[in-house]
Amino acid sequence: VANLGPSTTAPVWKVLAIDLAASGASLSSVTTVTVGVEGPGSGVIYVDDVRLYGAAPAVIEPMDPGTAALAAHYALDGTVVDSSGNGYDGASADAPFFEDAPGDLGQAMFFDGIDDHIDLPITALLSSLSDMTIATWVNFPDEGGSWQRIFDFGSGTDSYIMLTPRQGTSGPMTVAVKSLPVPEKRFVAPDTLASGWHHVAVVVDSATMNLDLYLDGAVIASDSTPLLPKDLDETTQNWLGRSQWEADAYYSGLIGDFRIYGRALSAGEVRYLAGDR
């Protein structure tokens, strides 16, 4: 019998490594293995891709990123104030509306897809960063117009880093970076961001010159990046929910707990923010 502890309540896919040898049983005599849940409670547990190893591979362990190099933090609990202590308080273009969010998220801001967006005063921030992580919780109902933005930081259509939940009206979630003379490069997920609450993160690592796009604690797109945040110079238009392109639709949905770190979080730290505790 192996005790899986609180893992059964984690809102993310999690590798459960069960050390059969530690049971004390003679493994040469084992013909069946049963995985179940004991005790009170209700709900649904999904199990997939069961494997048996002679020696188990390494498992990514969640780790609290804390506040190390936390440059800006917008909990969006009724305000657009920066709680990092660095003074990057946001401004809403309209009277913001906040809704209760699940778990320990508190509240999240609702964007109506018409003109709602948040303007962040981080003009000089990105130009000072070689490494960066942007992490947030979103609930995108897959409604509204094309090329919506979760965030778009830049200085117009020739210099930006942005995240869209879908290309066009039905394409995949995508991160894109551009700063002339370097052309746009896209980091494309397999699918459109699904409806419901999800954690998304973008990690830029200058040591490897790589950009990773995470969904619910797992990398879904990864490639070399031709640009680092500092290569964008000072960004004059830094928006949540709005694009650098006037023709693109405003974001329709919810955003909560938006964070910018001045470092590349590890895979374990991203998993922690995604709810693997």
List keywords for this structure.
277 residues, mainly beta, 8-stranded antiparallel β-sheet, 7-stranded antiparallel β-sheet, 1 helix, 3% helix, globular
Overview of the structural elements:
- It contains one helix and 15 strands; from the N terminus they run βββββββββββββββα.
- It has 277 residues and is mainly beta.
- Strands 1, 3, 4, 6, 11, 12, 13 and 15 form an eight-stranded antiparallel beta sheet that branches.
- A hairpin with a 6-residue loop joins strand 3 (97-100) and strand 4.
- 36% of the residues are buried.
- The model has no long low-confidence stretch (mean pLDDT 91).
Short description:
With 277 residues, the chain is mainly beta. Helix content is 3%, strand content 31%. The radius of gyration is 21 Å and the shape is globular.
Task: Spell out the blueprint of helices and strands.
Layout: E1 70-74, E2 91-92, E3 97-100, E4 107-112, E5 118-119, E6 132-139, E7 151-154, E8 159-164, E9 174-179, E10 182-188, E11 197-205, E12 210-215, E13 218-224, E14 237-240, E15 252-261, H1 267-273
Antiparallel strand pairs: 1-15, 2-5, 3-4, 4-15, 5-14, 6-11, 6-15, 7-8, 7-14, 8-9, 9-10, 11-12, 12-13
